[in-house]
Each structure stands twice: as C-alpha cells, then as structure tokens.
Amino acid sequence: MLFLGILLHISLFHVSMSEVAPCNISKPIGANVLIPLPYKGLTADAHLKWMHGKERVFYSKGGEIKDEKRKIKFDGSLKLDNIKSSDSGTYEATVHDSKGAHVHFSSQRLCVLESVKTPEVKYSCAGQWPVLTCTRGGPEVNVIWYRNNQEIGQRQQTLTLTADLFKAGDRYSCTVKNQVSEKKSSEVKPVCSGKIQVNTPTVTFRCDKGTMQMTCVNSTGMVFSWNRNGQKLVGKDNTILNLPEAEFKSNHTYSCVIKNGTTVIQSKNVQPSCKVAEQSKWPNMDLWLMVTILAGGGLVVVLIILSIVCCLCKCKKSQEKEKELRLANLTHSPDNQSEETPLKRPRRERGPLPEVPKPRVRPAQLHNSGQPGPDMVKNSQYMHMV
Length: 386
Description:
The chain is an alpha+beta fold. It has helices at about 1-20, 275-280, 285-330, 335-340, 375-385, and strands at about 25-30, 35, 45-50, 55-60, 65-70, 70, 80, 90-95, 100-115, 120-125, 130-135, 140-145, 150, 160, 170-175, 180-185, 200-205, 210-215, 225-230, 230, 240-245, 255-260, 265.
C-alpha cells in the first residue's frame, strides 16, 4: 500500500511539472494567504508534509513537528503571511496515517501578482481625429475605455476616435485591471483645434412603418445637430433621425449640421415627400397583400394537383382498355382463329399466273364458216379455267 502511494505521488508530481497549471489562488504582493488542505480526516498522529516546489516548508510526524518554515492551522491548512513574488508556485500536501499508509495528496498553484498602478489618459491630434493612449499600470493588464462614464467596448491600449465615438465636450477615461487589482484614470476632454477638411453632408430619408427616418450621410465629421425649418431640434444629435407620425409634417424642411474641431458645415434643406399620415390610413395593407399572395399561390397549387390527378385517371383508363384487349386476344382458341382467318398459300404453291386475256373478237371478224377462230377458243378456255 505504501509503495502504491509513493508511485501515485511521483506520477502526479511529474504531471504537475510537465504542464503549467492555472492559478488556483491569486493574491497581490504583501497579502496574507491561506492554502487550504482538502483532506478532512486529518488526525493528531497523522504525518503531514507541505512542499513548495522542491522545498519542504512544513513536516510533522505523529503529532511532532519536524520542519516548520511556514505555519499551519489546526485543520492542516498552510498559512503564508506578507507574500512576495518568490512565493508564487505550486504547493503540494501529502498525508499518511499513523501506520504510514498514504491517504491524501493535493496540489494547488499560487500566483502572486503586482497591483496595477493608476493609469493616465493622453491624447494627440495627429490626423483627423484625437488619438487616446492609456498608460498601462503594470504588465499583463486588461484595458477598458469609457466615454462619459459609459463603457464603449474598446480593449486596446490606443484608441483612435472617429465620428461614431467623438463629439465635442465628451469625456474619456480608461481602466486597467488584472486578477488581483483594478484602477481607473481621470477623465480628459480631447480638443483638436487644427482645421480639417470636412465634406458637405447630405440628408436621405425613407418611410418605415409610420416613422420618417432621415440619415445624415458624411464619411468624415460628426453629426452636431438636426434642424427643422431652420430651428435646432433639441436632443437630436445622432446620425439617424427618426420622427414618429405625430411629429412629422410633410411641409417642413430638414437639414443636419456637422462639426469637426472648429469646422461647422450644414447640409442643404430637404423636404421629405413620403406622407406618413396617408400611409397610416391603411395600417393592414401589408397583411392583406400577404394574404392575397398566399391565397393565389394556394389556388395555383390546387389547380396543378387537379391537373395531375386528371392525367393519372386518363392514363389509368387507357391502361385498363389496353389490358382488356390483350385478355380478349388471349381467350380466342387457335382453331377458331384458323377458321376465321384462312391461311394463304405461298405464291409458289398456287402455280403460274394465267395469261393476260386478249381483247374479244367482234362478230364481224368471225370466219365465214361460222366456226370460232383460234382467239375465241383461247378465250373460252380461259373462262373455263376461271
């Protein structure tokens, strides 16, 4: 039993050394750590040994402490105070009973990490947009960007602002964190005063289920505001403007204003021709159109099925008639068939064909003796043969 326990211990040790195990416990430098002993049957006379890598940090045999570089609790858990980076690594616990039989082995990995430092956001105006940089607070940290205290889903250390992420007056900050700590930077308001080439925007529109949707189209710049009849619409500062039926008037004009740094450009006024109010008179038009299409399609399918059934019926009838004719021919006996249809003799058995008769001789051509001539005799013989 002891031999098997030693083999198990050696095999598990080699497995743990061949692959770097994930961190079971992660703590910052200077913290106090308690590495638990999963075995619950520890007795006072048991043998307990804790190993940190190849170094023995605690050993007791039969209740007598032999080595105590680290303290343990009553349940056998290992206590580590004011830990340092060098305390990182694998901790293994081995338990034998009072007779020396192996009863438990466990392995846990401790990761001692440095706490992150408070980051700082810096920006530059190289190019058309501000470029933000979050200074990392230490190695192996994750970066999260915020705009007006709202997370924007960016994770890289450098963030280049574009039209959908930047508006004058916006505040930006970043957070860095690792497994043991997290720190957030102060907010900054990027301001780029350089003049940037901005294209004049255009407004497109369409009707969508009782709502007028207008879009400010421009590859550069940002949507600063929307105007209706020359008056700014409060709270409408997105690229797309949606107006419900109650707010939309067909005789109103609309335009959008973009701003990039100190450059402000307004689009041309447009008057949407889509009449939302008239569309609302037939709220179920799409439904009726769909029902009509489905009904027509169903009718076509029924007609096709009926045509196929008729063709099959006709084919079946013709097959039945043909079958009846075949049965009728098979029921006639060979004798009856020979009587009804006499066999014709071959041409060779009938003999030679008779000679072609010559024209009859008129009475005036007869001999004066009153006897028939040779031609008449031949004709009479021919008639006799017939």
